[in-house]
Amino acid sequence: MLGSFYKVNGLTMDLGGGSCELSYVTSNNLASSPLSSPRPAKRLKTSSSPVSLPYGAAILRKRLLKCDDHPKRKKKLYQEIIDQVTIAKSTTNIPGHLKDHDGYTLYMSGGGFRALGYLSMAFTNHTSVSNHQVKTQKKMTYPIPIISGYSMTGDELIKLVDQFKDRDPEDLVNELKVFRISKRRTRMIPATCFLVSAIMKVIKIKQIYFSEGGARQGICYHMLPVSEQLKDPLLEGVKSHVSHLPHALSKTDFDTVFKVLKDAIPPLYLSPDHPLQLHRLIPAALHLANLTTHYPKETRAFVAFHMPLASGPLANIPGLLHSERAILALILAYRQGGEVPDPAFNAIEDMIGKYGVAVCKYVGRLMEIIFLISPRQPGLALLESGIQFKLIRPESSDEEDYSISPPVTPNSQQFYSASTLQIIFPSKHSFMLEAPAVISVIETMDKKIQPKKFELDQEIQGLDSKVKLFSVSIVRS
Which Pfam families is this protein grouped with (predicted)? Predict the structure, then answer.
């Protein structure tokens, strides 16, 4: 589990056939800075007294079968689980800083719990929206069918378990045909939901994350040197993937382009506690940015978009939540022009929200310009071309061009603000910048990073028609 996520900070539960384990995991220095710290610089701390509850999926299913036609027995079993979980919660000695006013973060592993994740995916549908504001009747399946990194809210989990905890197992076998849930596992869904329902009567959960890793992966993780454990699994996996490829960036090119990107992106979005996690995803995107440049033009964005998704070569990369896979996919797609003829593209954008998409579009289009100047040696070309990117933050909200509407959610305002970018051409002639293809992309960037007209329908998106997170202006010396 520890190797599956960038940061792990919450309760852990592992459900097997015979038992359910309750513990927690956190870093030693997290109490003072639970959100903004980078990956912990110390070994992660777990409970010294984890509890094993005798309520594995198989055992609990057998006990529930004995309660058929005996509602009082079933109610008594439910109360028994609640009592045992209450004791286990106390025995585990959960640190106080792991809980906020909304409850705990919970990391689930084990086949029984993962089945709930796949079940949640099956009931999470996305509606594709066309360019003419017409919603298609066809419902899309969840676009990232990978269990590791999948998440759901506590309220969503409660709704799910309440729907299935009292169902007949054999009826579910005939009704449910869900990806990655076998008939054997389907028969255990009511028992698993029964257990989770009782657990959530005792422990308030705000967010659930599903982990593919289990005991074997944990043993392998702890066999690694501490220096390896502290590395970001995403960046290490990406660097390993590109290391042998001819279109990978050299260290010099990477460092040069990364510095330019950092200077052209508002610092707000590079903060470690920003929900978009660009401080990790931009370096990863930069390593991958040139890998599809040699593809046919109409397939570049399509292939780049799918790289971190279930159909791409980075599907097995750890350290990514589903929202982060979606953000990385969008940045890579917009770096290659953003034309992706795939209904999943809309579903991925829906996962991130309109403000998040606007940031991904800005970063991707900025990378498109940088790499278009010289795809083979972008770092050297940037220096030789003399082009500059200057970020300007408006001083006053009186400038209507830079105003944004109230955020969609109350908590999002602190994460998004308006900015403008100046692209400054050098006074000295540069043949790299005067190429028609380069000029065209630079001059149309401001237009391309704005929401399309059909996206601004207030009834669909709830956004003000003047929403404008980013603006781009061109300055010629």
Answer: Ppx-GppA (PF02541), RTG2_C (PF23566)
Stretch (H or E) spanning 421: strand 419-425
Q: In whole angstroms, what is the distance from residue 64 CA to residue 185 CA?
A: 15
Contact present, 225 and 233 (Cβ < 8 Å): no
Bridge pairing between strands 388-392 and 419-425: antiparallel
Rounded to whole angstroms, how far apart are CA atoms 421 and 301?
24
Q: Residue 329: which domain range?
A: 233-476
Q: What pairs with residue 388 in β-bridges?
A: 424
CB of 456 closer than 8 Å to CB of 133 = no
Residue whose tokens read 């009826």: 171
Q: Same structural domain for residues 273 and 337?
A: yes
CB 318 within 8 A of CB 148: yes
Domain for residue 228, yes or no? Answer: no
Q: Give DSSP secondary structure letters for 11-30.
A: EEEEE-SS-EEEEEEEETTT
Q: HSE-up of 131 (CA within 13 Å, CB side)?
A: 2
Q: In this structure, are residues 19 and 53 in contact, taking their beta carbons and an 8 Å threshold?
A: yes
The reply to whether 266 and 375 lie within a common domain is yes
Question: Which pLDDT score is estimated for 356?
Answer: 94
CATH of residue 352's domain is: 1.10.3210.10
d(CA 437, CA 458): 35
Q: Are residues 389 and 264 in the same domain?
A: yes
Cβ atoms of residues 145 and 179 within 8 Å: yes
* % pLDDT > 90, the chain: 69
- Number of residues that make up the chain: 477
CATH number at residue 125: 3.30.420.150
CB 343, CB 142: distance < 8 Å: no
Per-residue pLDDT reduced to its tens digit, 365-393: 999 999 999 877 888 889 999 999 999 87
pLDDT tens profile 321-352: 999 999 999 999 999 999 999 999 999 999 99
349 neighbors 264 (Cβ within 8 angstroms): no
How far apart CA 249 and CA 291 sit, in angstroms, is 9
Provide the 8-state DSSP code for 68: T
208 φ, ψ to 5°?
-120, 135
